[in-house]
Protein 1
Amino acid sequence: MIVRARLLFALGIAAFAGTAAWAQLEAIPAGEERNPPSSVRLADLARLGSLEGWGPLVPVLRDAAFQAYREDRLSAAEAWFYAYRWAALFAESERDCVANWSGALREARVGHAGMTGQYKVTDRPLGLYLSPEAQAWVLANANFSEEFFSLLSPLDYMPGVLRILDELYRGDPAGFARYSSLALAIAVVHDVPPPPFWPHAQVAPEALERRWPPAREAFAWWVRQDTEGRTYQRLTRLRADELKFVVDAAASFPDLSWSQEIVNYPLGQFERTYSMICYRRDREANGTAIWSDRAYTLPAILGAGGICIDQAYFAAEAGKARGIPTLLFYGEGQDGRHAWFGFLGQDRRWRLDAGRYAEQRLVTGRARDPQTWTEISDHELQFLSERFRALPSFRQSRVHAEFAGDFLQAGDADAARRAARNAVNYERRNLRAWEILLDANRRAGAGAASEEALLREAALAFRRYPDLEIGFVNRMCASLRARGQTSAADFEERGLAARLHGDRSDLSTQQARNILLRSMASQPLEGQIRDFNSLVDSLGAGAGTGFFDQIVVVFVEHLAQQGARTEAVRAADRARDTLKIAEGSQLDQEMNALVARVQGTP
């Protein structure tokens, strides 16, 4: 089949005459799409796109990609598809890009004060942010294209991403080629200023300036550490989705260099860095959670000591100085709240519990993704740890999912369903492919029973990732309730909460919260109290701060707002007895404060 489009391909440029010789081409030669585009073809595309604009190239490249896909030429289809994606990106107007980005920020609720400012809304195409030389480079590098489009998020500010990539490419083309994943990580993290709660909220603004260093300076610093052998993880062997947890350092480069001299634990013992900071029990006793008396530097923290958040920050920053991807965690334990850190350790496996005390019975914890500033989900942490997205099977799955998404956008639900099914067959952990499959199934007119079967299949596929399993099961339960199958939905919901109670009490609590909120919205007061007591009795034994926050506080305050203060105090007392709260603990103090509030006592 011949892929047709009305295009002008440049055959040559008469530079001194100021004129160009063009040949009109109505079709890509038959059969060319069966193989990845040649270097000559990609160079021609880059030259034409930079001279005449990328818009006319979009349909011809899409046709080539989809023709290769229909012929089951997957590697060729992938290569043509990424060429098509680059053309579409370069052709997109700044106005459309900013509108889509702003909408994504609002939907995800991750806009922050650091983003305030003027953003251009001209009709200039995004391709102008990348020089012709840089455009030609990215178009010709299949591995970079795969990494770029697999990492890309609607929350990335694309003018900023492309501007940084261009700056780094023009500053050091050879270094960019060798450290392209590092350059990409810097681009997607530094595309907008950091938020005021970064790296954590327990340090005053005057003690730590929240700003990124110049992109070239950051790139050169980490490249130098790697080439001079000061990194524990070789940066050329890490992907951008790991390196973004290196380049999000908040400490200055002098501080990071200082830490390399002070912190001498090898990678296999790097969790001991956490304990280098002397714990300040006086700050804990005085309730002094905010560091505000001096500059928040790594030497100052080591000299003065700190609480758990300072220990975690110090260790995480020291890791970044050594090229180790690190995460700062915070979470709730049995008797209080805590902070710790995670890092990419030996054998490139994530350690997610450094500084996490076993006796606290802490759950997975929460961390921020510096690319999007959303909280990193439990399953994403597991995905990072397993590193399955670097496997060939997942790459094949992603290709099918890319085409499935494009089919769906074009309105071909049946083709989208087939492609998405191929994607999940190659890799059951491809979450995006499952969502496309569900959407395509719905658009193809399948009924509720078919959707519930797919949701159950997806829940089973993610049985090892409880937060995802819960999501699919709850959607299935919502569908069952909409069909009047309330008892079946209740059975599924409560059964999952009970099963998760042992190993993942945090998710069990989340499930219990959903049950409680539905009861509060639909049941009379007696029924609400009965459901609360049932949840406390079945799931509250030995539970900690998370259960207190999401179940006890919510319901006790709800009763007080309804004027049922006596019942509110009884509910709190029942929870206190069942949770077995240690006298004098942080949780005991919070429970006492809750009871005082509902009683109206000062």
Note: The beta strands are 3-14, 19-28, 326-332, 337-344, 350-354.
Protein 2
Amino acid sequence: MSTYREIHGKAIKSLSTDLSATIDEGQIWYNTSSDTFKSIVATSAWSSAASLITARSESSGAGIQTAALCVGGYRSPGPGTVATTEEFNGSGWSSAEDLPAVKHKAATGGTQTAAFAAGGYPPNAGNAVTVEYDGTNWGSGGAMTSARRALRGAGTLPAGLAIGGYADPPGAYLTNVEEYNGTSWTAATVLPTATGNIGAAGTQTATVAFGGASPSATAVAYKYDGTNWTSTGSLNTARAQMGVGGIQTSAIAFGGGPPAITATELYDGSTWTTSPATMATARFNLGSAQATPSNTTALGFGGGPPDVSATEEWNTSASVITAAAWSAGTNFPTSSSAVAGVGPRDAAVGIGGYPAGSPPTGKSFEYNGVAWSAEATLNPNTGTAGVNSAAGTQTAIINSQSNPGPPYPYDAAGEYDGSSWSNAEDRPTANYSDASAGTQTAGLFFGGAASPSSLTNATLSYDGTNWTVEESMSTTRSIACGNGTSTAALAGGGLSVPSPATNTSNTEIYGGESWTAGGTMLSALREHRSGGPSTDCLEFGGRIQGAPPTTFRLNCSTYDGTAWATAPNLGTARGLSGSGNGPVGAIWGAAGYYPGSTPNRTNTTEHFNVETTAINVKTLTQS
């Protein structure tokens, strides 16, 4: 009988602690401390990722899981075909240059920095137009020899493949296959069966094509060697309009329909196997990162019906990946809006706020990540703590206290030492709804309003004793988000015109002496909050431009110092809620407005948790 060493080339080890490296996958060891045999085992699973900026179906995809493209698509109801392009960096989606020709159900291939998109809608008959993307701009490519839609792309730029499709008129599925050299398309050997909405993975000279409609959904698969098509093992579930990835000898198919399904299948070069791991969201007409190097990683996004923005990642790994997400914390003591916050979630303070139908609380509450405790009431001489902002830590806070109703204005400020509030020097300018960054001895407050019709771009610094007027922002704004330090602060979004209410998507960065332009936010926002350094921050909640007064958002986004990208959504849509100024992995949000027939308040608290990985150590048992 063969031994474990003879089979695996390694002996069973005896260790007092568990192994912790992915290179030890498959190694069996005896843990002398727990008196158990253990091993590191690879697992496959789908996990949620940050959503697309724009929900859509019938988009096309290119690139790999950590550097993908979402190209075009269709939105129903309205506006129909879209030209928007988005880039995924492994954490979130950011805006890229629009397609020069709007289209959906096009053939795509290549990487995030070298991709093509050919054919697709409109017109209804399909088109022959090819466009190319260099990572920044779209440009014109060579026209296909046959106009069509609902086709599938594979390969790279400049070695692409366009497979199958549909033409209307004459209303027929097609066998057409074309090869692209980066300049022009040429006809290649046709598919054995006329098929539209087919799946495909691989290169121009080594592709596997599978499923699709001809006209009903099929499970048939074929391999292409650059010259000929040959039959190979069929899918286990007939499907069209699916997500794909991998190469000819290691491909993946997921989702598809109709009707929409969650099933995932893996191909080893001859046979398809259904995985027990399924997608969280059933969908077809989804986009995917088609250039993934094997079926151990994949990325699916969008699809429907109805149109969704959901993104999911597929990983086969010896590590267990827990995606970034918001989780529930302990409810804030009062259901209030306009709560200011400082500190990371295990050492936080929530200050003031407006309970529904009541005057401002003027109270502060400390949070240790598990429970809230009532602390000192703000000094009455320092304002009402209605719409206030704050900077500092749990034991050293400077609070810009304000009253958003007559009499205007308030110039009061207060300090907190961890047990009591005291008056601080009055601010040189009086306003409310400003944003803040920094600490008690190096604080920065910017923007705000002196009255509902008078917004400001003023900037004030505080050194622990005195206030100083600094250079103003270029954008007048109120109820914006702010985070960072007094020498590296971020101001994002906000109400820029009071009547009619107009939000801005402008971002500005303060370097200690002056403000400079930052990346444009994904949406024009107000009443949102943010935390973290100015080069690695998270903003969340708020109200988007044009939304009804009682509509607030779940959406969140991150900023890396250059560009904004999508992040996992909140569990509760809300506006103007408390948040801390710690690192992104310790951000919290509590209380705030939430959707209702009138401006209602919530007391929910949420924690943001960054993505984590852990080695998948399994205890071996005898069954």
Note: The first strand starts at residue 13 and ends at 15.
Protein 3
Amino acid sequence: MHYSTLAKIYEELESTTKRLEKRDTLAELYRKCKQEELALIVTFSTGYADNDLGIARELMRRIIARTYGASESEVTKKFNETGDLGLSAEYFAKHRKQVTLSKKELTIQHVHENLQKLPKVTGQGSVDKKISLVAELLSSVSPIEAKFIVRTVLGDMRIGVAEGVVRDAIAKAFDKDSRKIEKLFDVTGNYGKVAELAKKGKLKAKIEVGRPVRVMLAARSPGLKEALEEFENPALEIKYDGFRLAIHKEGSEVWLYSRMNENVTVQFPEIVELARKYIKARDCITEGEVLVIDEKGNPRPFQTLSRRIQRKYDIKKKIKEIPVQINLFDLIYLNGKSLMDAKLRERWNKLKSIIKQQKGKFQLAGHIETKNLREAEKFYDHSLSMGQEGLMVKNLDAHYQPGRRVGYWLKVKPIMEPLDLVIVGAEWGEGKRARWLGSLLLACRDRGKFLSTGQMASGLTERQLEELTRKLKPIIEDEHKKDVKVKPQVVVEVAYEEIQRSPKYPTGYALRFPRLLRIRDPKDKGPQDVNTLTDIEKLFKMQRRFH
């Protein structure tokens, strides 16, 4: 398929805010696709949303300038007018100062091949190579195509297509039940693969070792007593302040995947070796929580772990500097058989049977089974004394439900638990802080939108301001004097004294004395994982009950 065809579809999607119209547009596109190109087109229809291609806005401005013979200041000026580098590229493609001698019709496959190369380009001369890969795509396309290529590379499509729309479009295109489509996605983790199966009329897929699976999610509980009352047979596990990891093992082959299904095998070679040595199974998929530990085995701050997650080079050095341990808590596949439909009690017992523990390095999660509140409180205090977040209370009689907060797992943390919020705005500082962004505008989720609910203006160290500015600058969407609007992408965990009613923010609530606990790693928590307005309302009511 020519990329120009897809660009026209993008324009249709951008022109409407109606979900059903978006679904119908995509369904028609999928229906017309050839089998061999369907998976790729489904991936493109979401705008490569789950791919980090490693091109920041500053670099994209250089690419646009070089491709169309404009100056970087001209590109910056146009971006300040539009707030969208895609529109800026469209403008300069229409008014290009350099004439392309030969023009060839760009295919989706060619765009895909160039995009796939981008994150793999490293080392000396890598910036010029990345510029060339994107400039090649932009040099011979129409203005509309240029707009969407730039947006795709930046991961900022602005066409309003989320996973739910893609799911329903696949269901309509091939006359299938959307619930069955989602179930396929649970075990394949890829809507392109799902569309291929649906087109063939095959609505069954098996878990495959080495292919990531959507993880089960936990809901929040107002307290330990309430959580225990939810289940007839509860299990209590330590809620670790770490990084969730799925270990896939097949013979001597081992793959590691994050909660967001990103392959992090390279970053943790020691866990790969421990899995080979201490998992006594031919093949399996198990889950656990990774922690950074000090020389005494005590947990270190999550920010330290984040440096390991992001590191792909000099790994041997980081293994010594930032040692980790993993605490395993679930088993969803064993020796050719899915355990998703098995009860947690069976999954836990099978997990215990295949794990040979190395204390402090490769071990089972802290776990007890009790309905007794006093015993549970003692275990809860033990978790907090270890520097961990609290407890997970799980239903021993429940199956594993991928990708959902169905209430089978409940998180119990101290009453005024921190909030995960996304930064949507900031202000440039003054005086010696003029080069940093501060006064961060924080937002929660509400029915697909981000609503601001407070401003974190004090208590940030210079190091934190520097790190936040580095993360926020490339995603600035608009600037007016000192105020900036940023793409909702950077998630922070925030503590606060209390939640107050406030007409100042669209949520109707404000956080009193918010303070930064940590910047969330995007592989662990993204904008889609931040707390909701409903969470804030519940916490507001809860604090009134306890004060």
Note: Residues 19-32 form the longest helix (14 residues).
